[in-house]
Design goal:
Elements (H helix, E strand, L loop, with lengths): L9 E2 L11 H14 L9 H21 L7 E4 L2 H12 L5 E5 L4 H14 L2 E5 L9 H7 L4 E7 L11 H10 L3 E5 L11 H4 L3 E5 L11 E5 L39 H17 L1 H19 L5 E4 L10 E6 L4 H12 L1 E2 L1 E3 L4 H7 L7 E5 L6 H19 L2
Parallel strand pairs: 1-11, 3-4, 3-5, 5-6, 6-7
Antiparallel strand pairs: 2-8, 7-8, 9-10, 10-13, 12-13
Helix pairs in contact: 1-8, 2-8, 3-4, 5-6, 9-12, 10-12
Length: 395
């Protein structure tokens, strides 16, 4: 056991934000701050032109990663929450009905609660099974005559369970509803193609699996969705400045005000890294580490893993509860004694914890892996948890 703060940091909180970033990301942000320092789409001098070109390149890279054939339908936002707020507030109208699930993050639950209070929409929350997986037939059964939107996470940020989004998307379209997918936990960890998933709006964070800086997010739109998605923020775009109304052209319709240029250039560099390395390789790496983590945890008495039993049906994320311990106590102990850094608590997904019956105990301890974690990191984490469990058993 070591309390040395200089010990090697083992970062296993990639579901919150990824770290470390590729060197290319640091270089892109630093170059902007030191050499470019200009806004995007506002001026015509050399550095401003380079910035605009860099933003366009980042947009094309994200479009390529997500299978979007027109990069203008990739909208840059402040974060995944901002993307979801744009999708939800921009699509819904008074009297609408929304079908969502208990696995959702507060970034979906709270905007829907606000819509229900302010515009009198109705919301149905479909239950999950014991593994945290949604049954598409339960979605179908919840659809009514006023259902405008179905909103489901691609993977739970609590259990890591990957959801059958393509099946749910087909059900949505058969019913004439729109399909919104929160892909914050899958982007960058596995191949995600908006066409194959049959989604109309796909929201995600730029700073998690896509390896960009904080303060970045994306919203990808299917063809024709812009006509049904109102802008929720209006202001300067650098285009159509003589007109009082917000431009209809994409992406300006949804990108008012100065963009987070250093963040987006860093995001573009992160996505280019993923494209070069290959998402298949990143996915294999994550699955291998998650399998090792699950195998190690299975040997610890008193420990329960939430979510699917196998790594193949989850993103590289594992949540646990340890009998006799508060999750926060475990997380603090892991960092203090071993420099293993994880997230404890409800993870902003209260309905998920109600379904898993973990809310009263303070939630779970979440270990979330990234592309730069190693098998040695996993071994240290498993040994550290085993040590905590053994110390409790001997008391």
């Amino acid at each position: 056991m070591s309390n040395d703060p200089t010990a090697r940091r083992i970062y296993l909180d990639n579901a919150a934000t990824s770290w470390p970033k590729p060197d290319e990301v640091y270089a892109a942000v630093d170059r902007y701050q030191r050499e470019l320092g200009a806004p995007a789409g506002r001026s015509g001098y050399a550095e401003a032109t380079q910035v605009s070109q860099g933003i366009n390149a980042a947009r094309r890279a994200v479009a390529r990663l997500l299978g979007v054939d027109d990069a203008a339908r990739v909208i840059f936002t402040c974060n995944g929450t901002d993307s979801l707020n744009l999708a939800l507030h921009g699509v819904l109208r008074e009297g609408d009905h929304v079908v969502t699930t208990v696995i959702e993050h507060n970034s979906v639950l709270r905007p829907l609660d606000a819509e229900a209070r302010q515009r009198r929409i109705t919301v149905t929350h479909v239950d999950c099974d014991r593994w945290g997986v949604i049954d598409p037939d339960a979605i179908r059964a919840a659809i009514g005559p006023r259902t405008r939107l179905i909103a489901v996470s691609h993977a739970s940020n609590v259990t890591g369970a990957i959801q059958p989004i393509a099946d749910i998307g087909r059900i949505a379209h058969e019913a004439g509803a729109l399909m919104l997918c929160d892909a914050a936990q899958t982007l960058g960890h596995m191949p995600v193609d908006v066409r194959e998933l049959e989604v109309d709006l796909l929201a995600g964070s730029g700073h998690k699996g896509l390896l960009g800086p904080l303060g970045t997010g994306v919203l990808a739109l299917a063809p024709g969705i812009a006509e049904r998605l109102q802008s929720v923020r209006q202001g300067g775009t650098g285009t159509r400045s003589e007109r009082p109304e917000q431009p209809d052209e994409l992406p300006s319709k949804y990108e008012s005000g100065n963009l987070n240029v250093p963040g987006i250039l860093g995001l573009g560099a992160g996505v280019e890294y993923l494209l070069k390395r290959g998402l298949d390789d990143v996915e294999r790496h994550g699955l291998s580490l998650a399998a090792n983590l699950l195998g190690g945890f299975a040997e610890i008495p008193g420990l329960r893993v939430l979510g699917p039993a196998t790594a193949e049906t989850r993103v590289p994320l594992v949540s646990i509860v340890l009998e006799g311990y508060d999750p926060q106590e475990i997380a603090i102990g892991l960092d203090a004694a071993h420099r293993v850094q994880v997230r404890a608590g409800l993870h902003c997904a209260p309905r998920m914890h109600e379904a898993l019956e973990t809310q009263a105990g303070g939630g779970t301890v979440r270990f979330s892996l990234g592309p730069f974690n190693t098998a040695a990191d996993v071994d240290v984490a498993v040994r550290a948890v085993a040590e905590i469990a053994a110390s409790g058993a001997s008391m």
